[in-house]
């Protein structure tokens, strides 16, 4: 699930398997995103309405430090894509350098799972803490298995000896490639988790949209529908593409606060 023309050597992928219809080449460009696990009938319907273009499926774990399985239907070029410098952190240890000293040898994770829309449940965290507290030094395999199940489910990171914590909103922003405090204005932690959990992974989108930089050297107009906390706009801004006009359609009052 590496998409098209991914240049990273160990994940190198091929070109678009079939050419897009002639009438869809060139402006206007469209870019539709949805979760990979959406019903097949939905993907088939969207492809049918978008000139029968097949989706490009990408798991962002091949690009950054957290998984995010998404599909994209678009008429963008797939040649000459590029990443921005510096490259996104590839592992949790590159993203959060302070955690490596506390990371137990029996936790083999280098990347986190898909970042969800919810906070880790307090009772679950407390249960894991109690189990660890009753284990001296390296916990037995049965305890390790239990703890790892909770860590994977909650995307927990180690912050001390036998101490772990869920990701803070600003840490999720970093993993998703957003500017720090991008969602600070949307409300409390719960609202921020929800908005971030439904958002784009910026480094993936920047890679896809990078082909627009040479096409629109003097800027472009953008119509964005239900893009949440402005993922497409942030990606274009990162690429240095001037946004002449942005027409926004977003039904979430919480997400609209980002634009105000």
From TrEMBL:
<keyword id="KW-0238">DNA-binding</keyword>
<dbReference type="InterPro" id="IPR050390">
    <property type="entry name" value="C5-Methyltransferase"/>
</dbReference>
<keyword id="KW-0677">Repeat</keyword>
<dbReference type="GO" id="GO:0005634">
    <property type="term" value="C:nucleus"/>
</dbReference>
<dbReference type="InterPro" id="IPR030380">
    <property type="entry name" value="SAM_MeTfrase_DRM"/>
</dbReference>
<dbReference type="GO" id="GO:0003677">
    <property type="term" value="F:DNA binding"/>
</dbReference>
<dbReference type="GO" id="GO:0003886">
    <property type="term" value="F:DNA (cytosine-5-)-methyltransferase activity"/>
</dbReference>
<dbReference type="InterPro" id="IPR029063">
    <property type="entry name" value="SAM-dependent_MTases_sf"/>
</dbReference>
<protein>
    <recommendedName>
        <fullName>SAM-dependent MTase DRM-type domain-containing protein</fullName>
    </recommendedName>
</protein>
<keyword id="KW-0489">Methyltransferase</keyword>
<keyword id="KW-0539">Nucleus</keyword>
<feature type="domain" description="SAM-dependent MTase DRM-type">
    <location>
        <begin position="16"/>
        <end position="260"/>
    </location>
</feature>
<dbReference type="GO" id="GO:0032259">
    <property type="term" value="P:methylation"/>
</dbReference>
<keyword id="KW-0949">S-adenosyl-L-methionine</keyword>
<keyword id="KW-0808">Transferase</keyword>
């Amino acid at each position: 699930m590496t998409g098209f023309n991914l240049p990273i050597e160990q994940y190198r992928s091929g070109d678009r398997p079939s050419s897009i219809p002639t009438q869809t080449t060139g402006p206007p460009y469209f870019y539709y995103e949805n979760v990979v696990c959406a019903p097949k009938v939905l993907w088939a319907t969207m492809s049918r309405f978008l000139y029968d273009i097949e989706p490009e499926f990408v798991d962002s774990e091949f690009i950054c430090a957290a998984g995010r399985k998404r599909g994209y239907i678009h008429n963008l070029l797939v040649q000459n894509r590029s990443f921005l410098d510096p490259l996104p952190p590839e592992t949790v240890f590159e993203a959060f350098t302070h955690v490596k000293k506390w990371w137990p040898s029996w936790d083999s994770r280098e990347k986190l799972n898909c970042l969800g829309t919810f906070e880790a449940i307090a009772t679950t965290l407390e249960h894991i803490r109690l189990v660890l507290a009753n284990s001296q030094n390296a916990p037995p395999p049965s305890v390790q298995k239990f703890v790892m199940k909770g860590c994977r489910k909650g995307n927990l990171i180690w912050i001390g000896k036998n101490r772990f914590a869920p990701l803070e909103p600003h840490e999720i922003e970093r993993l998703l490639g957003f500017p720090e405090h991008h969602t600070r204005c949307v409300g409390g932690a719960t609202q921020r988790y929800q908005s971030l959990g439904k958002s784009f992974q910026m480094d993936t989108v920047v890679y896809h949209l990078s082909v627009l930089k040479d096409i629109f050297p003097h800027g472009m107009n953008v119509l964005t529908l239900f893009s949440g906390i402005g993922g497409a706009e942030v990606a274009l801004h990162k690429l240095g593409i001037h946004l002449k006009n942005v027409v926004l359609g977003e039904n979430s009052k919480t997400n609209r606060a980002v634009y105000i």
